[in-house]
Design brief:
extended, 130 residues, mainly alpha, single chain, two-stranded antiparallel ribbon
């Protein structure tokens, strides 16, 4: 302790060992996975899905919200990522659908080569401004 500098120095050592948690591989029930896949279209939050799965005994309390979040993210990726090699192609295809064209979405440019992939489009509100 140094009163003139108004500071104190404390040195300690923690020598008590604690029991470390053991890792357990927990399988997620197939019925719960199927239920999640079938209900993704409702855009429920992971916490809501978790509560439903617990209340309806599709999973045990040993399963966590993180387990549910993991499986939701896996299945959601399959929903939104339809072409892993060229992620712009599904967007282009979507914008070419007659009901989208009727709403005045317009593809301005699309090119795909070894160097770059690009998609440019205009929305109805942008077209109004121009």
């Amino acid at each position: 302790m140094n009163i003139l500098e108004q500071n104190a120095s404390v040195q300690c050592e923690h020598s008590c060992s604690h029991e470390h948690p053991s890792y357990r591989q927990i399988e997620f029930p197939e019925k719960a996975n199927q239920w999640i896949q079938g209900h993704l279209k409702y855009n429920l939050r992971s916490s809501e899905l978790y509560r439903y799965l617990i209340e309806n005994k599709l999973i045990n309390p040993i399963h966590t919200k993180e387990h549910v979040y993991f499986w939701v993210s896996v299945y959601s990726k399959q929903t939104y990522l339809t072409n892993q090699d060229n992620q712009l192609l599904p967007s282009k295809t979507y914008l070419e659908r007659p009901e989208i064209v009727a709403r005045e979405f317009k593809i301005l440019t699309y090119f795909d080569n070894n160097f770059v992939k690009a998609l440019g489009f205009a929305t109805p509100s942008f077209i109004e401004l121009v």
